[in-house]
């Protein structure tokens, strides 16, 4: 196979954390994950990650893989990678999941193309579903789990696509389990994951119309 | 049953195997991969100046991969041009077939597509890389043992 990717996301992926947006509504947007490339940095980073994990475990112990958030990074201004060249980002973009191999600033939403050791997940940018912090966290922890699972795989579009597709399937599962529901106020209402089920309440008899 | 070209090749001592005629009566020959480039040059010199199509297919699960070439001899004032179909079979484990790009330039994209879909690597092809699938794609989609990845697609949109 003629894969030309020179990056190997071979070492530890650690979670860079998602960042709250400008407003409360956009609280779930960015979510970054990093793959450290140098061993020395990795070690120090791992310590940090462990600390973060411990902190998190104190806060809310769960069985699932904990998302490991990171502190905001300093953004380097991108060159020659403007919005017009969006397709050149190493990314996997589907309707509800956008994964970029870049760091995205939570406040300014600026991309940093130099930090290709981080993966950023943008969840449901079109607001098709109603998200709560819990369901967001479920998706994020699943993302972390997948990133840990694909540790060592080459950082290519194909791998990102595998991760993104798995997350999409997971979102679909959440929807079918009733954890999330369609946002009826979204701009495009085409029920891309299946028509909503309507549960009729058969216990109540209709009153006779006199 | 031996066709004209087969008889001509036998006369010049070129190794091949006749596979009979297809439904249009076009002679079909099988040629070994290692002989294919030299025979292609000989056929070009003989007069087959037009590569009408090149394609590839997977013969059987776990079997050989085939690369097929349809050659035509274009001449002035001929309404029934001579045609021949060449099949070259390569083992699935290491499918290597010499490229005919340097004989018929039109083989360029077609061999790239065959490489993309079936993973036949054409030796001496100038830029053999994927043409339809993304470059980071894994696997050869038209092989019979290919398993499509479980990529998410919008299926239920209304």
From TrEMBL, chain A:
GO cellular component, one term: chloroplast thylakoid membrane
Keywords: Membrane, NAD, NADP, Plastoquinone, Quinone, Translocase
One Gene Ontology molecular-function label: quinone binding
Location relative to the cell: Plastid, Chloroplast thylakoid membrane
Name of the protein described by the UniProt record: NAD(P)H-quinone oxidoreductase subunit M, chloroplastic
Family, per entry: Belongs to the NDH complex subunit M family.
Catalytic activity: a plastoquinone + NADPH + (n+1) H(+)(in) = a plastoquinol + NADP(+) + n H(+)(out); a plastoquinone + NADH + (n+1) H(+)(in) = a plastoquinol + NAD(+) + n H(+)(out)
The UniProt record lists the keyword NAD: yes
Membrane topology: Peripheral membrane protein
Binding partners and assembly: Part of the chloroplast NDH complex, composed of a mixture of chloroplast and nucleus encoded subunits. Component of the NDH subcomplex A, at least composed of ndhH, ndhI, ndhJ, ndhK, ndhL, ndhM, ndhN and ndhO.
Pfam families: NdhM (PF10664)
Source organism of the structure: Liquidambar formosana
Region: Disordered, residue numbers: 42-79
Biased composition regions of type Basic and acidic residues, renumbered to the chain: 45-60
Domain of life: Eukaryota
UniProtKB/TrEMBL annotation, chain B:
Record InterPro entries: NADH_DH_suC (IPR010218), NADH_quin_OxRdtase_su_C/D-like (IPR037232), NADH_UbQ_OxRdtase_30kDa_su (IPR001268), NADH_UbQ_OxRdtase_CS (IPR020396)
Residue ranges constituting the NADH:ubiquinone oxidoreductase 30kDa subunit domain according to the UniProt record: 30-148
Pfam family, one: Complex1_30kDa
Membrane topology: Peripheral membrane protein
Membrane-crossing residue ranges in chain numbering: none
Catalytic reaction list: a plastoquinone + NADPH + (n+1) H(+)(in) = a plastoquinol + NADP(+) + n H(+)(out); a ubiquinone + NADH + 5 H(+)(in) = a ubiquinol + NAD(+) + 4 H(+)(out); a plastoquinone + NADH + (n+1) H(+)(in) = a plastoquinol + NAD(+) + n H(+)(out)
Annotated localization: Mitochondrion inner membrane; Plastid, Chloroplast thylakoid membrane
Example of a GO biological process term: photosynthesis, light reaction
Gene3D superfamilies, sorted: NADH:ubiquinone oxidoreductase, 30kDa subunit
Primary location class: mitochondrion
Any single Gene Ontology cellular-component annotation: chloroplast thylakoid membrane
Keywords: Chloroplast, Membrane, NAD, NADP, Plastid, Plastoquinone, Quinone, Thylakoid, Translocase, Transport
GO molecular function: NADH dehydrogenase (ubiquinone) activity; oxidoreductase activity, acting on NAD(P)H, quinone or similar compound as acceptor; quinone binding
Coiled-coil portions: none
Role description: NDH shuttles electrons from NAD(P)H:plastoquinone, via FMN and iron-sulfur (Fe-S) centers, to quinones in the photosynthetic chain and possibly in a chloroplast respiratory chain. The immediate electron acceptor for the enzyme in this species is believed to be plastoquinone. Couples the redox reaction to proton translocation, and thus conserves the redox energy in a proton gradient. Core subunit of the mitochondrial membrane respiratory chain NADH dehydrogenase (Complex I) that is believed to belong to the minimal assembly required for catalysis. Complex I functions in the transfer of electrons from NADH to the respiratory chain. The immediate electron acceptor for the enzyme is believed to be ubiquinone.
Family: Belongs to the complex I 30 kDa subunit family.
Subunit structure: NDH is composed of at least 16 different subunits, 5 of which are encoded in the nucleus.
Name the record gives this protein: NAD(P)H-quinone oxidoreductase subunit J, chloroplastic
Organism: Semiliquidambar cathayensis
Gene responsible for this protein: ndhJ
């Amino acid at each position: 196979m003629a894969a030309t990717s020179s990056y190997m996301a071979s070492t530890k992926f650690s979670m860079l954390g998602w960042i709250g947006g400008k407003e409360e509504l956009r609280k779930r947007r960015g979510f970054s994950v990093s793959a450290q490339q140098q061993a020395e940095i990795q070690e120090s980073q791992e310590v940090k990650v462990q600390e973060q994990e411990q902190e998190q475990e104190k806060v809310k112990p769960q069985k699932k893989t904990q998302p490991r958030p990171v502190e905001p990074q300093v953004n380097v201004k991108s060159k020659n990678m403007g919005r017009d060249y969006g397709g050149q980002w190493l990314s996997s973009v589907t309707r509800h999941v956008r994964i970029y191999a870049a760091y995205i600033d939570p406040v300014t939403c600026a991309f940093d193309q130099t930090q290709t050791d981080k993966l950023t997940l943008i969840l449901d940018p079109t607001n098709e579903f109603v998200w709560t912090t819990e369901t967001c966290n479920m998706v994020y922890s699943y993302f972390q789990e997948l990133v840990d699972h694909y540790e060592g795989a080459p950082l290519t579009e194909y791998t990102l696509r595998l991760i993104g597709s798995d997350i999409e399937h997971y979102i679909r599962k959440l929807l079918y389990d009733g954890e999330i529901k369609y946002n009826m106020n979204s701009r495009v209402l085409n029920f891309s994951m299946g028509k909503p089920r309507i549960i009729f309440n058969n216990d109540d008899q209709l009153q006779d119309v006199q | 049953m031996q066709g004209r070209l087969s008889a001509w090749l036998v006369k010049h001592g070129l190794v091949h195997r006749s596979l009979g005629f297809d439904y249009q009566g076009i002679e079909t020959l099988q040629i070994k991969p290692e002989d294919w480039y030299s025979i292609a040059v000989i056929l070009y010199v003989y007069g087959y100046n037009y590569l009408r199509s090149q394609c590839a297919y997977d013969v059987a699960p776990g079997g050989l991969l085939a690369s097929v070439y349809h050659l035509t001899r274009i001449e002035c004032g001929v309404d029934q041009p001579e045609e021949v179909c060449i099949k070259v079979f390569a083992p699935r484990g290491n499918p290597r077939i010499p490229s005919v790009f340097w004989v018929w330039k039109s083989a360029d994209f077609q061999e790239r597509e065959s490489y993309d879909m079936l993973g036949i690597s054409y030796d001496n092809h100038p830029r053999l890389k994927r043409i339809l699938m993304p470059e980071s794609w894994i696997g050869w989609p038209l092989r019979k043992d290919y398993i499509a990845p479980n990529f998410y697609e919008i299926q239920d949109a209304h």
